[in-house]
Design a protein that fits this description.
The structure is a homodimer. Chain A is of the alpha+beta class. Chain A contains four helices and six strands; from the N terminus they run βααααβββββ. Chain A is elongated, with a radius of gyration of 19 Å. Strand 2 of chain A pairs antiparallel with strand 2 of chain B.
Chain lengths: ~170, ~170
C-alpha cells in the first residue's frame, strides 16, 4: 500500500477485470444466493432478468479479490524497487452499494477504485482515512456496480510525528 | 413473500444463524478475500485481529443465503395453508454496511431483519418499497454486522387498483 501522504484525491486504480462464467455464477449462488435466476438458465430465462446472472454479492466479492491482488502486486513492485510498503488498516464498512445492471454469464466486469477524499484520523495519529469510490463496468461500458468505501492507511512515520505539518484536514 | 399490505414497520424476522468454521472461512478467503488473517491461523495470530476471522463479504453473503432460505420456508408454509405468495422484486442495493466486530472461526452469527419503513412506489403502482435494517449478532450478543436494504414487494392486486385507498404515503 502507498503511504497516506502519497495518495491524492482523484487517484484512480484499475484493479483488474473478471469474466463471470456460468459455472462459477451457479456455484456462488448455490452457496450464498440460491435464487432460480442465479442457478439455472431455464428459470432465469423466465425471470425478470431474462438470462442467467450473477448474485450481486458475487460481483461485489470479486471486487474484493481483485483489490487485494492489485495491492499485493503493487507491494511486490515497491519491494523490488527497495521502497517500503504502508499498512492498510481495517475497513469500517461501505456505503451506497448499488447494483445498477445485471451481470450476465459471459460478461466481463472491469473494476476501478478512485480516491474521493482523504483526511487525518484524530483518534489514531499514525493513520489517515481515505474515502474511495469503487465501480464495476461491463464490456459495453455500462456501470453495473458502484459503492463507496473507507479505509485506514498508515502514515509515514516522520509525517505522523507531532512536529510535522501538513495541510490535510483532521477528522474523527 | 408477504404482500406489501401485510408488512408492518417494526416487523422482525429472525432469519437464521450460522457457525463459521475455519475451513469455510479459508475457502471463501482464497476465492474472494486473500488476506493472511482470513487464510492462515498463524498469520492471523500476528495480525491486529489476533486470530483467524471471516471476510466481511463472507459474513454479508451468508446473510443473503439465510434470507433466501427463510423466504423459501415462509413461502412453502403459506402454500401449505392455501395462501398466495407475493413476489419479491429486485434489490436496488444496500446502504451503510458496517463490520462492527470480527467474526472469528467458531463464532455463531444470528441474523435478523427488521422493517424500518414502507411506502408505495409511484413509478410502479403494483409494488411497494420496504426499508429493512439487517443485523448479525454473535454468540456473546455483540453486533458484528449491520446494513440497510431496500426491496420492492408486490402489492395485493385489489389494493393496487385505482379505487383502493390506504394510508401509506407515496414515494418515488
Amino acid at each position: 500500500m502507498k503511504y497516506f501522504e502519497d495518495i491524492a484525491v482523484g487517484d484512480r486504480m484499475d484493479i483488474g477485470s473478471h469474466l463471470f462464467g456460468a459455472d462459477e455464477i451457479k456455484l456462488f449462488a448455490a452457496q450464498f444466493d440460491p435464487q432460480p435466476f442465479h442457478m439455472d438458465e431455464a428459470a432465469a430465462a423466465q425471470s425478470h432478468f431474462g438470462a442467467l446472472c450473477a448474485s450481486g454479492w458475487h460481483t461485489a466479492s470479486m471486487w474484493m479479490r481483485l483489490r487485494i491482488l492489485y495491492g499485493q502486486r503493487e507491494d511486490a513492485e515497491r519491494t523490488a524497487r527497495g521502497e517500503p510498503n504502508a499498512t492498510l488498516g481495517p475497513s469500517p464498512g461501505f456505503r451506497e452499494l448499488k447494483w445498477l445492471k445485471p451481470v450476465y454469464a459471459g460478461d466481463t466486469i472491469s473494476y476501478a477504485s478512485e480516491v474521493a477524499d482523504k483526511r487525518l484520523s484524530q483518534s489514531r495519529p499514525r493513520w489517515g482515512l481515505i474515502q474511495v469510490h469503487n465501480t464495476g463496468t461491463n464490456q459495453n461500458g455500462e456501470l453495473v456496480l458502484s459503492f463507496k468505501s473507507s479505509a485506514f492507511v498508515e502514515r509515514r512515520s516522520e509525517a505522523a510525528s507531532p512536529t510535522a505539518t501538513d495541510s490535510v484536514r483532521r477528522a474523527d
